[in-house]
Amino acid sequence: xxxxxxxxxxxxxxxxxxxxxxxxxxxxxxxxxxxxxxxxxxxxxxxxxxxxxxxxxxxxxxxxxxxxxxxxxxxxxxxxxxxxxxxxxxxxxxxxxxxxxxxxxxxxxxxxxxxxxxxxxxxxxxxxxxxxxxxxxxxxxxxxxxxxxxxxxxxxxxxxxxxxxxxxxxxxxxxxxxxxxxxxxxxxxxxxxxxxxxxxxxxxxxxxxxxxxxxxxxxxxxxxxxxxxxxxxxxxxxxxxxxxxxxxxxxxxxxxxxxxxxxxxxxxxxxxxxxxxxxxxxxxxxxxxxxxxxxxx
Length: 297
Fold this sequence. Notes:
This protein has 13 helices and 5 strands. It is mainly alpha-helical. The chain folds into 3 domains: 2-65, no CATH class; 79-193, Serine Threonine Protein Phosphatase 5, Tetratricopeptide repeat; 194-297, Tetratricopeptide repeat domain (Serine Threonine Protein Phosphatase 5, Tetratricopeptide repeat). Strands 1-5-4 form a 3-stranded mixed β-sheet. A two-stranded antiparallel ribbon has the order 2-3. Strand 4 (38-45) and strand 5 form a beta hairpin. The longest helix is centred in the middle third of the chain and has 18 residues, at 176-193. The termini are far apart. The model has no long low-confidence stretch (mean pLDDT 81).
């Protein structure tokens, strides 16, 4: 491994030249602070020994634009505090066995703190769902719901998220009747506790619309997608991807109902916005081309 000392001197990362202190001064060793980040420039196989590889590294700075962008992205994706962020990161990178052990260990130390226990069960639900171990996911989230429900009435707004999450797991299992049952419970609570134009209702409308679409009840799916549309229209910019997705959903439902003029209208609106918001090579563009072509056939 070769490190360019000139680049190191230009960096604001602490380091020390320790060749005079090293047992092998000919190696010209450099001691870097913990958590120092390098950019890999090149990896090449060494000619004199094919089992060894040479890695050329460049040290990064705190003002490195790519590193800053990556850090900001991770901060958006990994929420919470302390050890919980570690668990989320393990889950994001699909280290499921490690994250499972990690959360179970956390659970042992937080048994008397209901809020933390609920949070851990929620994370375990996500892990099992990602592993497609849906029965375990349902078990964890129902345990979490049981703990949270003890001091709360059945229609408390905090329970809506639990019911929605259970519905999501059943939806992923393709058990649409169960998914509909819990999505509906969540939706009823939200309707009672929120204004009719609250953005949180759009998720509920979309979830219900998707289930009805999957079971072939297109008229009901259309009702819920149409309820979501004006809320998106009032709360999001015209080019927002969540808003744009409504056109795609409406197009799919209209196509299933064989209302091809409305199908074409929805897909064309969807495509017009995609032209502004996503790169030319984006897969959604190809999908929309195909969908519009199918309608014309």
